[in-house]
Write a structure and sequence with these properties.
This protein has helices spanning about 15-25, 40-50, 60, 80-90, 105-115, 130-140, 170-175, 175-190, 305-320, 325-345, and strands spanning about 5-10, 30-35, 55, 65-70, 90-95, 120, 145-155, 200-205, 235-245, 250-255, 265-270, 275-280, 285-290, 290-295, 350. The chain is α/β, with parallel strands linked by helices. The longest helix is centred in the C-terminal third of the chain and has 20 residues, at about 325-345. The protein is globular and about 65 Å long. Bound molecules: nicotinamide-adenine-dinucleotide (NAD).
């Protein structure tokens, strides 16, 4: 069977843990190019996933007509320019989350996909999570009754990523905990509730825990050690309320806080039943029947969401189909995050 050829641009954490294994293990694909501006990373990725070439300039990979698919796994500020270049070169693209640093960039990416008649998917991988899809099915089947409110928490204890690096520099990331973690939660919620019209948002954002970078004490520092000569100008805490044509949504997110408790979950409140979904895990559903209170935690087999995300990308690109992770279906979240940041900046509710 002829395998579709892939270039993976950016060979860091997510490329090594998710995209690389997913293409490598898929009988439909093979990685032709490992691309990273750090040559050793490209070389290591090439060897690990049996790619043909390791290169430092992505333009070399996308000039190859044999390459049909590209994964874009670079820092946020490069999502839009690299994705647009790939689309203009006639490639289908799976770009990591967040789609871009803001809605304007995400919209330009969508236009490039439309103009070139190419598929552009975003790495909203939770849309491929088994438990998330079970929750979506239960909501759609009316099991929760009237769904009136959703609360989500994406809070960790002293866990700012790569302090001073691309994750904490606004011009490179677009924002902090909201755009990095919150995007997964808000996208997942909009997916589960069928993307209602967004009405307004009121939010606040804080950057308190590492304002003096050198005195910030941490329990873990994923995405690299601190760079004290770097920048920390994004929020480490965010809170807010969103009004939609359906349920209201409230959220609290913290990369770091002075509470030593990880709280990563989403609660769906309906008048018939409520669901608490542990982020990345299982869920419990509570209801009542004939004077009894019911509590169920189902068991089911979880599939590998990253494998499924990539497998769906390979197939939908071949068929030219816009699926659940297509930019068209996720771009609303970029606008939502813009409005959250706008509301936090002006200290007032903003409308859509
Ligand atoms: N879906 C998820 O759950 C998930 C998890 C982690 C990261 N991400 C996203 O993936 C992206 C990358 O994050 P990461 O944690 O892998 O970061 P990382 O820093 O580990 O990797 C990024 C890589 O891109 C390379 N790079 C930078 N500029 C480049 C260029 N012009 N051309 C080629 N390579 C270039 C860097 O050298 C680095 O190796 C981010 O947008 C992040 O939000 C998604």
């Amino acid at each position: 069977m002829k395998k579709v050829k892939v270039a993976v641009i950016g060979n860091g954490t997510i490329a090594n843990s998710a995209h690389g294994p997913a293409y490598y293990n898929n009988p439909l694909s093979e990685i032709k190019y490992a691309v990273d501006i750090i040559p050793e990373r490209a070389q290591a990725f090439k060897e690990k996933f049996d790619a043909e070439y390791a290169v430092t300039d992505y333009r070399e990979a996308i000039a190859d007509p044999e390459v049909e698919l590209v994964s874009v796994c670079v820092p946020n500020y490069l999502h839009a320019p690299i994705t647009i270049d790939c689309l203009n070169a006639g490639k289908h693209v799976l770009c990591e989350k967040p789609a871009a640093m803001n809605y304007k960039e995400a919209y330009a990416m969508k236009q490039a996909a439309d103009n070139n008649n190419r598929i552009l998917n975003i790495g909203v991988v939770n849309r491929f999570h088994t438990a998330v899809n079970k929750v979506k099915e239960l909501i759609e089947a009316g099991e929760l009754g009237k769904l009136y409110h959703i609360y989500c928490s994406f809070r960790a204890y002293r866990s700012i990523p790569g302090l001073g690096g691309p994750f904490t520099t606004k011009s490179l990331a677009g924002g902090g905990v909201l755009i990095d973690w919150g995007v997964h939660y808000l996208d997942l919620i909009l997916y589960c509730i069928g993307s209602p019209a967004l009405k307004s948002v009121s939010a606040a954002a804080y950057s308190e825990m590492a304002k003096d970078m050198k005195s910030y004490v941490f329990t873990d520092m994923w995405a690299g050690p601190p760079d004290y000569n770097g920048t920390f100008d994004v929020e480490d805490f965010v809170t807010g309320m969103i009004r939609t044509s359906g349920p209201t949504i409230t959220f609290n997110g913290a990369w770091a806080q002075n509470i030593n408790e990880r709280a990563a979950f989403i609660e769906f409140l309906g008048d018939k039943a409520g669901i608490k979904l542990q982020y990345g895990g299982n869920f419990t559903i509570w209801s009542s029947k004939d004077g009894m209170l019911l509590e169920t935690t189902p068991t089911f087999t979880m599939s590998d969401m990253f494998y499924d995300e990539v497998d769906a990308f390979i197939k939908c690109a071949q068929e030219g189909k816009k699926i659940r992770s297509n930019i068209d279906n996720v771009i609303a979240c970029s606008l939502l995050m813009d409005k959250i940041y706008e509301s936090a900046a002006i200290g007032k509710e903003v409308e859509f």
